[in-house]
Amino acid sequence: MKKKMLAAVLAGTMVMSLGTNLCWADGEKTKVTMTVWNGDWGDQLDRTMESFNSKHDDIELDITMQSGDYSDFLGTAAATNDWPDIYILTPWTQVQDFAEAGRLQDLSGMDFTEKVYPSALEAATYDGKIYGYPANVEYLGVFYNKQMFKDAGIEEVPKTRDEFEAACEKLEESGVTPIASTFKDSWTLKHMFSVMMSNVVQDDMEGFLDQLNSGEGTFNVDGIDDVFATADVIKAHCGSNMMDCDSTSGYNALANSEAAMLISGEFSQNVVARMDNPPEIGYFALPVSNDAERNKAAVDVGIVYGVSTQTEHMDACKEVIDFLSDASLSDGYIAIVTEKPGSAPASQDFTVSYDSASTNDYLEYANSGNVIPWVYQQYVNGFDVISGDIFQGYMADAADKDEVISELDAAYLEYLDQ
């Protein structure tokens, strides 16, 4: 199974020049190259590079943002065996595949392993060893308007599904739309379905995935009724036109106090932060179960920095990783990439540089270890996308529970064969 997934990841064909000597000495200065995928974090990476280089007379860090498809970049690097010294990967399956293929250095003894949350380290672990620095995490759940909760007489955030439904009813009685919909975009339902499935299979997520990957598993597991019961509560309290609302309209509804709650990730909060007088937004775990102890924050790693086994300057690469994972630096990587509301938090305890109730609420979950990973990041490659499409049918009342489960099972088998 892992060999099939590795083949899919490494099948890129884009022609590009990686250079024949990616790490070299210039006098006594060692150059360490790092490649990352394209995104809107170019300025943050430039500042990270400048900060590192200003602190190191003997090492020059050169960060390149890959402009094309990142899978193509990985495929070309694998085909030529010509890698940058450090590069980023997605957690879990991709890290495991690259470690199994002998492309990543074992970083198990490094200092960051004592700083990073144990749950985050798992996302960069293969065969008991740690093969990357899981730098940032993201969290999914319920973001809520504290004033609207107070006005509706809701004194505590709901900790069970029944309490969640009761809160929705109180909000409606006060004349408020309880939940902002984003369900025109199926990717938002990929996230929501994953949060609910993670809750259900948290006691043996590995066993659940092993069964699926063997071709003998099913989504019709014990507790699956909690998934659909939670979806029913959400459907009943999103307003009459919920399938017409995309992520942008949902984010704006929370930011403009047009709805009291939004089921999303921390990335949605940069919209709230841009308001002239933003409402105070808190965060709590989506209460899928009526057992409050099972309702944990859905938190997982977004970025893993790996060091290539082809590097000729392992000591210099370790210094880069040490710098990236140093939360004490006011001008370090962690400070730079977490400086704004909506930023993905560090994978370890860190000082939040802005006032955010939702981030503080998240940190209470994280620092107490009351978190669960996203099961969708461990599915067979590609299935995560179709899972959102399939669950969209249930939210739109186009398919019932049994039909959705059958579609999920059949689609998973198809992706196993690809």
Element layout with pairings:
Blueprint: H1 2-9, E1 25-26, E2 29-37, H2 42-55, E3 59-66, H3 70-80, E4 86-89, H4 93-100, H5 118-122, E5 125-126, E6 129-130, E7 133-145, H6 146-151, H7 161-173, E8 177-180, H8 186-201, H9 205-213, H10 224-236, H11 247-255, E9 259-265, H12 269-273, E10 281-284, E11 297-307, H13 314-324, H14 333-337, H15 357-367, E12 371-372, H16 383-395, H17 401-416
Parallel strand pairs: 2-3, 2-4, 8-9, 11-12
Antiparallel strand pairs: 1-2, 4-11, 5-6, 7-9, 7-10, 7-11
Helix pairs in contact: 1-4, 8-10, 8-16, 16-17
What is the subunit arrangement here?
A: single chain
Span of the ends, CA to CA: 10 Å
What is the total number of structural domains?
Answer: 2
> What's the rounded overall pLDDT mean?
92
Low-pLDDT parts are 1-26
Overall geometry comes to globular
SS strand fraction = 15-25%
**What proportion of the residues is helical, as a percent range?**
40-55%
Description:
Helix content is about 40%, strand content about 15%. By secondary structure, the chain is an alpha/beta fold. It folds into 2 domains: about 1-140 and about 300-370, Periplasmic binding protein-like II (D-Maltodextrin-Binding Protein, domain 2), CATH 3.40.190; about 140-300 and about 380-415, D-Maltodextrin-Binding Protein, domain 2 (3-Layer(aba) Sandwich). The strands form 2 sheets. Strands 1, 2, 3, 4, 7, 8, 9, 10, 11 and 12 form a 10-stranded mixed beta sheet that branches. A two-stranded antiparallel sheet has the order 5-6. The radius of gyration is 22 Å and the shape is globular. About 45% of the residues are buried.
